[in-house]
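Lab channel / #folding
Pinned by the channel admin:
"Please post every new chain as: sequence first, then the structure tokens as a reply. Keep commentary short and put observations after the output so the thread stays searchable."

First post following the new format, from NK:
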Amino acid sequence: MIRFTVYIVDDEVSIRKGVYFALKKYYRMKAFPRAENAIAELKKDPPDLILLDIGLPGMSGMEALRRIKAADPNILVIMVTAYEDIQTVISAMKLGAYDYVVKPIQMSSLRLTVKNALETVRMKKEIQALQERYLNENLPCFIGESDVVQEIMGFIEKVARSRDTPILIMGESGTGKELIAHTIHYKSPQYQGPFVPINCAAIPKELIESELFGYEKGAFSGAGASGKRGLVEAAEEGTLFLDEVSDLSLEAQAKLLRFLETGEYYRVGGTRRLEIHTRVVSATNKDVLGMIEKGLFREDLYYRLSVVKIQVPSLNERREDILPVASYFLERLGRKHGKRFTGISHDAGEFLKSYNWKGNVRELKNMIERGVLVGEGPQLRLSDLGLNDLHHHPPITHDTALPPLPECGIDLGALEAHYIREALRKTKGNAVEAAKLLGMSYYTFRYRMRKLGLTTGLRASSA
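Reply from TO:
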């Protein structure tokens, strides 16, 4: 049951006490003689509704109303006036007051007014609770227990809060870039809007512009008789996800850049300027900086798309996540195919942890689904994974040329710190290039640096 909080702000002691005792049975009450006291308190304990006297000493009721609405526009305010000054009441309504009552206050009438006002708050809270429960149960999640995944998810929580900041997700094919884009959308203020994905690599270059921005009738041979709205328009007040954005033609890149900078665009064959609001999240598995050097991708568009960058590590770079991810797919795919597995056998688990995942999470999912289809249970066995088909992806092995472990042992932390410093020295402090030298993702590299206390000597990354 929702327990509402109501403030009464009135300089008359009898009014404060009368209203307090008339409503305390139904609501959590707080009483204040001056508006300044109430405004200071609402920052610590925001109310659902305030009964606010217009004729207060010090800060007036009208000024208090302005400040309350500026602090939190969702707080309902009912003005209390000693006389029915219509002009003042109208001014209060324009400032956002919900209603007004006239002194002397009839308590039975006041209770009904407050009840009706809070009913709107109750509906909003119930709808919000349902939405939050739905999102908690259905929100896409990037599965993983590793420090690097936890760091990425924490970063996503922060950047998703903005409404329109462009985000570029980079990583190998199959690492879950679209899943991260979904998560950004559902954690953003526009989560109720549409999530519209487009695979730029799957659409012919000559059609990508019309798919993005739509076209007017007769714009080109084969155009529909009534024209067509584009995916940008379909994503209004939501998120447009441009997967493999590096495959856009230079002409489409120019139009996308204009849209990102102004929010304006034209349909193909159209002369009417259109304007909408949507957030653009893009992804690529290619070396965009290398494409820029070759003149295949616009540098200005890259920097506009990558206001925020998220580098997704490969599955081989977060091997401690392999079994949790595999277990997640085993449970989900088991339900899909009407089978129940109790877990993954030891030898299958050891194989999964050592396997060279060139196809990343997508390849792991496919392998688990194959095992679910052919396996009899109760555990997923090594033979269920189709090993005869896997000769082209040998397990990762250690280099036997490495020196043996000394009898006295070694300090792994000191050794790792040494090679991190060496990589930074070779790359003149460039963390992105240093991470590549060590075969790490950028996020893993930065995490290991913080873990080892190596926080100096970095310069801005180039990716």
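NK: The CA atoms of residues 218 and 225 lie 7 Å apart.
TO: also worth noting, Residues 107-138 form the longest helix (32 residues).
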